[in-house]
Amino acid sequence: MKLFLKQWGLKGLRAVLGVKVVDQRSGEVVGRVVVLPWKGGLRLIGLEGVALRPHFLPQAREVYWAQDLGFSTYPPPDFPHVENQHCSDIAPGASGGVGDGRGVAAPQS
Amino acid sequence: MAEAWQRLNPEAEIHVAYGGAEGRFAGLSWPLRTWVGDARLRTRDHQRERQSYRGLMQAMVGAMTGRGVARVVMAECDVAPLRPGLADFLNRRGAEEGADVLGGRLRRVDGTSHPHYLAHLGHPRFRSWLEGTVRPEGEVVLMMLGCLTWWTWEAFAATARAAEPFPVYLELALPTTAHHLGFRVRGLPEWEEDLAPLGERGGELEARAAAGRWVLHPCKVLWRQGAGR
User: Fold this and answer.
1) How far is CA B29 from CA B33, B159, B169, in A?
2) What is this model's ipTM?
3) Strand (E) positions, chain B?
4) Pick from A107, A90, A59: which is nearest to B95 by CA?
5) At what angle do helices B170-180 and B153-161 cross, to 10 degrees?
6) pLDDT tens for residues B4-22?
7) CA-to-CA separations, B207 to A12, B196, B215, in angstroms, rounded
C-alpha cells in the first residue's frame, strides 16, 4: 500500500509540477522531474534511476544574467582493453588443466 | 534448471553455485555444484545491503581452476534461456566486441544522478576503491545488471580476487572492477528489453521464445513450476 501510494504520489506530482528533461546528448526526452530548492542546491524528484550528468550548456552569445543547466547521459561504454601486469599470473586462455576444451576463438583485443 | 541449461548448451559445463541452506545443498543431485557461504550473497534489500558476488566468484574460481575453462557465463537462477546455444552466442558476441566482459544494461554512472553511484560516493573509502586503476580516467564508474554476464577466464578470475576496500553493490562492483583492472567491458544493447531489473515475466516466455529471443529475466517461478525446457 505504501509503495502504491508512493508511486502514484510521484506520478501525480510529476504530472502537475514536473518539467520535461531532455538528454542533451541524444535529444531524447528522458522524463519529467520536479525541481525544488533544497539546502542551497536543488532537489530533483522523479528521475527514477536515470543516470544523468548535470552540466552548464554552451552559450551562442555570451551573457552574464543567465546560464542554462542541462543534463546528459554518457554514450555506451566503449573503453579498450589495457594490459595489467598485476594479472599476469592468471592464465590468459583458460583456467589451467586439460587445455581449452570450450572450442571457442579467443576475443581480439 | 541445470538440466535445461545443459540441454540447450551441450558444449558448456554447467556448474551450480548454491547460496541457500547448506543442508539443502547436500541434497542437490547435479554433479557439478558448489556451496557459497558468503553472507553478502544472501541479502534481502540487495541494493542497500550491497549484495556481492565476490564470494560466489571466488568459490567458482576455486571450483573451475584446473578444468580448462576459457569463458564463463554467469546466470542467476531467474534467467530463462529460450533457445539452444546461448553460451556459443555470447562467445561470438564477445569475440565480435573484442570484449573481456559482456553484461546487460551497461552504462557509465560516475558524476550522474544514479542512486547506486550516489549511495557509494558518500563512503569515505570510495576514492581508494578506484586508486589502483590502470586506466588514465580513474573516475569512471560502470554499472550493469548482474543477472547474466559473460567473461573471459582471466577477467573473471582477476575480478573475483580484486580488493574491495568497502562494500560495493554488485551492479557497480562487477563492471567497474573489471574496467579498472584493464578489461574491456561491453554491453548487450540488443537485450535491453529482455533483461529487466525487476518484476516477474514468466507469462511472457512463450511469446518471447516465439519471437526468437535468447533470454528472459526475471522469471522467478519458472523452475519451481517445473516448466524447464
Assistant:
1) 9, 30, 31
2) 0.90
3) 16-18, 33-35, 71-75, 80-81, 101-103, 107-108, 142-143, 148-152, 185-187, 215-216
4) A107
5) 110
6) 899 999 999 999 999 888 8
7) 33, 16, 12
Distance from CA of B146 to the nearest CA of A (A): 16
Sequence-separated (6 or more) residues with CB below 8 Å from residue B206: none
Quickly tell me which residue has 586508486 as its cell.
B131
Chain-centroid distance, C-alpha A43: 17
Coil, helix or strand at residue B75: strand
| Closest B-chain CA to A100 | B68
Torsion sign over Cα B45, B50, B56, B59: negative
Q: What is the pLDDT of residues A22-68, one digit of tens each?
A: 999 999 999 899 999 999 999 999 888 789 999 999 999 999 999 99
The distance of B30 to chain A (nearest Cα, Å) reads: 20
Best of B97, B144, B184, B190 to substitute, by most chain A Cβ atoms within 10 angstroms, is B184
Residue B156 CA to residue B72 CA, distance in Å, equals 7
Which grid cell is B41?
A: 550473497
Residue B189 region by backbone torsions, left for phi larger than 0, else alpha for psi between -120 and 50, else beta:
alpha
Chain A residues with beta carbon closer than 8 angstroms to that of B120: none
Amino acid identity for residue B172 in this structure = L
Whether B171 and chain A come into contact, CB under 8 Å, resolves to: no
Contact B95 A95 (CB under 8 A): no
Minimal C-alpha gap between A48 and chain B (Å)? 8
pTM above 0.80, yes or no: yes
